[in-house]
Amino acid sequence: MYDVIIVGGGPTGLFLACELRLAGARPLVLERRWEPDPADKAHGLAGQVVQLLDNRGLFERCGGRGVPEPAPGFFFGGLPLPLRALGKENPMYLLPVSQRDLERVLNERAAELGAEVRRGWNVLSFSQSEDQVDVAASGADGAGSTLTARYLIGCDGGGSLIRKQAGIAFPGTSDDDMVDRTALIGPSDLVRPAPGGRVVIDGLGEIPAAFHRTERGVFTILAHDPERPLVSTTEWEEHPAGDFPGPGTPMTLAEMEASVERVLGVRLPLSPPPEGAPTLLRRMCGRNYRLADRYREGRVLLAGDAAHVSHGPTLDTALQDAANLAWKLTATLQGWAPEGLLDSYGTERRASGERVLMHTRAGTALLAPGDEVTALRRLFSELLGSAETLRTVAALTAGADVRYDMGEEHPAAPTGWFVPPLDLTTDDGRTCRLAELLGDARPLLLDLTGGNDLAATAEPWSGRVRRVTATAGDAPAPALLIRPDGYVAWAGADPDGLKAALTRWFSPD
């Protein structure tokens, strides 16, 4: 019997398997594809999730350089966010990694940690009892098999079989009048980069490279790799007869060209990427905004797109789902979870899912055609001139705007928030970043008090919670109790407060 069966071996399922292994659980990942998906889908991670990957030592493995640094700017609803003005309060970090490369890194990491991943397996159904879940699947040889685990997690996408068979509702709405097209193309002499994140297009002039809105739609060109830029369009209007072949027909470069011409008003010939480069031609008809009404049904749980879909940072949100769930589920499997710990996964992460749906719908509304939307964009741009408004929108966009309920809170410390980056000098004289102490996904008591009061308090948890004594020049509190998912469960210097937080989240040995 496995501890956990994960259905779906995309980035969410693989990262969840890594987190479970770090926590000491034995997961099995079942993936229907024979090989990792070679297609380009998401083209980067943004916000708090970048810090999470840094905490696990995956930032540089995913193509990041050095230490994550806040981005000087970003976008909301196609409107620029001047994030440099926020200084140390800037929550936006960027990691330009394709989903294909992210999945490759996570697949390698899962293998290093000893997680079992079976490809070519199709899950057919499951049944659960008080003690276990039995999963019926067809194996790589086509033969049927029944696999058993103590818990089952659906990471199988927006059409999740696991969610449907668990009877979990997936309410939401769809915008059926929108069509999004995306293509990887080859370099073109007709498009040239310009300063300030802009491009010059022959016959049109200089426009923003990201989110150029017209009354006919939205055009974006991203050139992280100049040899294969990514172009995309969004259209709301009706399509000319014969130009739109329907959702079941593969998209072509000619269709992409026609869409670009409708949006920009100029013809931009497109060519495929250089020989051997991965290609992408994708059409998405309509946008879904849906959120599972609960993330757990008995021994069945959901994460990632199986729990929430939107035209927004779903992958960013999904990886944080995995980090939140893994340690809580492992604590339950190992028998030391405090009462209600596993249920807090759904409470905390569903709140984040709600915020993502809200901000992606609001951002979409700001890009729509129409004079009234143009007026709204002018007003919103003026509001972004306020530092307070800019901080609010930046935190929302970065996925850093949900504060978890941790009980008593230190007034000047980030209790309930994701732990900020810190440079430390440990008692043994080592200089390091806090992220380097979080790679093993264990709870951490970072003691900066220089005394022994907290050490005595934490002693009953010494086999479960790692304690590190150090100094930090810009510490937000004398001591921080950090959960495995990176959230601050307690901050301060009061031994009684520490004891209450340790008991609430980790139970004494």
TrEMBL record:
Keyword Amino-acid biosynthesis set for record: no
Pfam families: FAD_binding_3, Rng_hyd_C
Record-linked Gene3D superfamilies: 3.30.70.2450, 3.40.30.120, FAD/NAD(P)-binding domain
Residue intervals of the FAD-binding domain: 2-358
UniProt keywords, alphabetically: FAD, Flavoprotein, Monooxygenase, Oxidoreductase
GO terms of molecular function: monooxygenase activity
Cofactor: FAD
Key word 4Fe-4S present: no
Protein name (record): FAD-dependent monooxygenase
Source organism: Streptomyces oryzae
Biological classification of the source: Bacteria, Bacillati, Actinomycetota, Actinomycetes, Kitasatosporales
